[in-house]
Every structure is written in structure tokens, then in C-alpha cells.
UniProtKB/TrEMBL annotation:
Domain Condensation residues, every copy: 1-138
Native source species: Photinus pyralis (Common eastern firefly)
SUPFAM superfamilies, per database record: CoA-dependent acyltransferases (SSF52777)
Source lineage: Eukaryota, Metazoa, Ecdysozoa, Arthropoda, Hexapoda
GO cellular component: cytoplasm
Source domain of life: Eukaryota
Protein name per the record: Condensation domain-containing protein
Stored PANTHER family: FATTY ACID SYNTHASE, NONRIBOSOMAL PEPTIDE SYNTHETASE
Molecular functions per Gene Ontology: catalytic activity; phosphopantetheine binding
């Protein structure tokens, strides 16, 4: 998903190098596996366009193996490492929604109010369905990405 998203962003922006956020589950231990509360972490993915898809996938695999070592460092600290302590380092985010597991028992909770908001200019949520399909949800700030352009990104 990350390689595909980087290709889409690079094409849309006309840039060889793109940076976007990826949301990780943060459930890496027995203690957090069954936690009823979110354990999410958001980290930057920095990609440089590759001519081949295989090259891009290999680079993404290597990048991710290093990324997991730092997943619990605060984003503010990561921004300092990248030399941008006071400004955003990405304005798009990729989220892979895992919808199964014991922590998703919603019988105990009742949603009182849900006011959707967009923290990033573009947010792509990928959710696996039971029939081995993927549901894609693209949320954009319409003042930055017009509706028609958002539809093209999903195709």
C-alpha cells in the first residue's frame, strides 16, 4: 500500500521524492495486544521515485524494517531529526484499518457524537473486507484537493 500511495502522490505532485505519514497499530507486545484503547503511532515515510516497481518495493521493505525500530519515538522528536522541528513534515497520511480482534468489541461502548474533521490535507484509509476485497476511503480538504481530483486519485 505504501509503494502504491507513494506512486500516486509522486504522480499527482509531479515530484520524485514524497513524504507522507503512516499510522501504525502500536500493538507490539502482549500487554498492548488486548488493550481496549487506541495505541496508534504516526511516522513519516520518505520515498524517492524508482523507475521499477520492484526497486520501489525493495526500498519500502528496507525503510519499514528500520522504521519499526523507531515507532515509539514521539513525532516531535522525529521532526527534529529530519530538521523540521517547527513545521509539518507531511500533510497526507495512509491508514490501514484492521477491523478484527478482541479489542474491537463495541458492545461495551456507545458512540455519543462523532464530528468528523480532517487533520491532514489527504487521508487514505484502507480497510480489508471479509470477501478479500479492500475498501478505500479518501478524505481530503476540498480547498486543497478538489472532489474531482480526489476521485481520480482513487481510480
Amino acid at each position: 500500500m505504501q509503494a502504491s500511495w507513494s506512486r500516486i502522490l509522486a504522480s499527482y505532485l509531479g515530484e520524485r521524492s514524497v513524504t507522507f505519514g503512516v499510522v501504525l497499530a502500536g500493538r507490539t507486545s502482549d500487554e498492548t495486544a488486548d488493550s481496549p484503547f487506541p495505541c496508534l503511532v504516526t511516522l513519516p515515510i520518505v520515498t524517492e521515485a524508482e523507475d521499477s516497481n520492484m526497486g520501489l518495493l525493495q526500498n519500502m521493505m528496507a525503510y519499514n524494517s528500520n522504521l519499526y525500530k523507531h515507532q515509539f519515538n514521539p513525532l516531535a522528536e522525529v521532526k527534529k531529526w529530519l530538521g523540521h522541528p517547527a513545521s509539518p513534515i507531511f500533510d497526507t497520511v495512509l491508514v490501514y484499518q484492521k477491523t478484527s480482534g478482541p479489542h474491537l468489541n463495541t458492545d461495551q461502548w456507545k458512540l455519543m457524537e462523532d464530528l468528523p474533521s480532517v487533520e491532514y490535507s489527504v487521508s487514505l484509509e484502507v480497510e480489508p473486507l471479509e470477501d478479500e476485497q479492500l475498501h478505500l476511503r479518501l478524505t481530503t480538504r476540498s480547498d486543497i484537493v478538489p472532489h474531482e481530483q480526489a476521485e481520480l486519485m482513487l481510480k
